[in-house]
Amino acid sequence: MKKGELTLIAFADFSKAFDTVDYSIVIRKLHAIGLSKTALLWILSYLSNREQFVQVNDKQSSLRDVLFGVPQGSVMGPVIFNLYANDMQDCLRDGSTCFQYADDTTV
Q1: What b/e string do you get for 59-96 counting C-beta neighbours within 10 Å, with b at 16 or more?
Q2: CA-to-CA distance for 7 and 99, rounded, in angstroms?
Q3: Residue 70 and residue 85: Cα distance in Å, rounded?
Q4: In Å, what is the CA distance from 62 to each residue of 49, 52, 67, 68, 71?
Q5: Across all residues in the chain, what is the average pLDDT?
């Protein structure tokens, strides 16, 4: 700023980001960084075979399979999301710096 140059920062908190995680992409990225087959199977097991329902007042929906997303409120959720979104920096063409933790991003 002392040089009269423009300084700009953007903060992003992606809405429903944890709900958008595609399991196949997570596993592919984890394989690419060298996780063992055992670790990959453990993580896939952690993400798979989950069900959810919606309740409003005293009405409850039937159980539905959860086909994507990471469990929120868990220790592994932010870790898996970080690995899922770790290449966001590669999308910046102008040499900007990108800082990420889970669904909070600063560019």
Answers
A1: eeeeeeebeebbeeeeeebbebbebbbeeeeeeeeeee
A2: 16
A3: 13
A4: 16, 8, 16, 18, 19
A5: 83
Do residues 97 and 107 touch, judged by C-beta distance below 8 A? yes
| SS3 label, residue 11 | strand
- For the chain, percent of residues with pLDDT exceeding 70: 89
Q: Judge whether residue 15 has pLDDT over 80.
A: no
- The letter for the amino acid at 87 is D
User: Tokens 């300084």 label which residue?
Assistant: 7
Helix (H, G, I), strand (E, B) or coil at 13: strand
Amino acid at 73: G
Residues 75/84, Cβ–Cβ less than 8 Å: no
Which stretches of the chain are DSSP H helices?
A: 23-32, 37-47, 76-84
